[in-house]
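Subgroup meeting minutes
Present: P.N., E.W., G.H.
Scribe: E.W.

1. P.N. recapped why we're keeping a running log of single-chain structure predictions: easier to compare across weeks, and new members can see raw inputs and outputs side by side.
2. G.H. added today's entry (353 aa).
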Amino acid sequence: MSYERRLLIESAAGVIARHRPPQEEDASWSAPLWDALEEHGFTRVSLPEELGGTGGDLADAAAVARLIGQTAAPVPLADTVLVGGWLLAEAGLPVGDGPCPAAPSTDGARLERRPGGWRLTGSLPRVPWGRFAETVAVLAATPDGWAVVAVDAADLTAAEAVNLAGEPRDDLMVDAEIDAARVALAPPHVDAAALRRRGALARALTIAGSLDQVLALTVAYVREREQFGRPIAKFQAVQQQIAVLAGEVASASAAVDAAVLAEARGAAPWPVAVAKAEASSAAGRAAAIAHQLHGAMGFTDEYALHHLTRRLWAWRDEFGDESEWWIALGREAAAAGPERLWHVVSGAVSPAA
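Output recorded in log:
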């Protein structure tokens, strides 16, 4: 890790530590934390300066998103930087202030050209932190191809809902005239599959961050908790479970790091699928082991574990669970044919290449 990125992480961690609500409050949104992160530029860390960003790269955004997962911070930073902000920036649309998630689905909204602008109608289901968004990035089909729309919050009506972790996942309704300056045709590489893959990368990163913290908490706990006069970390069965937990965390972390590197290089898209599948798989197994070793302590309001594991259980399914991504990868590998299987397995090419 470079010195500059280490400073970035330390600075972001300091901001979160100072402004995050107390753990026991279990807040689903923190305006003071968001404002502090925005003031320091973390909410636009990898977006171009000319479009309102700070000019960092994908690895910078990934590091901050992973930190959000590690701290269970109740703000949509990953959804803004890696998904909504990315979608607007790829279409050349400016990214304004405030939370800017993307609508995960491209099926519910209809975009029609009108004199002097556009009209967007329909529903946007399960938008992360939709009720708190200043702008929602929408990818919609048109006769000319995919278009990106920057929808103002004033044009949206929210039916509030939450995921298992209590994070807002709101169904938004829209029926509004959209100024032409807020709509742009998407570049060729941005389509529904690319949006889903980008969302999967964001969730894989936050899962990896949460897994790091779950492992740290569990190791610390088994060293402190005593049974029969000695720390339970001395028992072989506990050591075995810790080893399995550490393996799950390491596997997910390696897959996520590889996906960030591949995405930054514009390489084959399938490493992101592997990362989400690995992270989602590890989320369930790691949460089970951590709670087994913690016992009842893991569910108390004042202790951090369940604030992390409830997010793991929620995030593992968002933008596709492990089954969806493994099946997709298997189909692509099968379609590539036996003569290219080794190249796919070894990572030389994309399955679809």
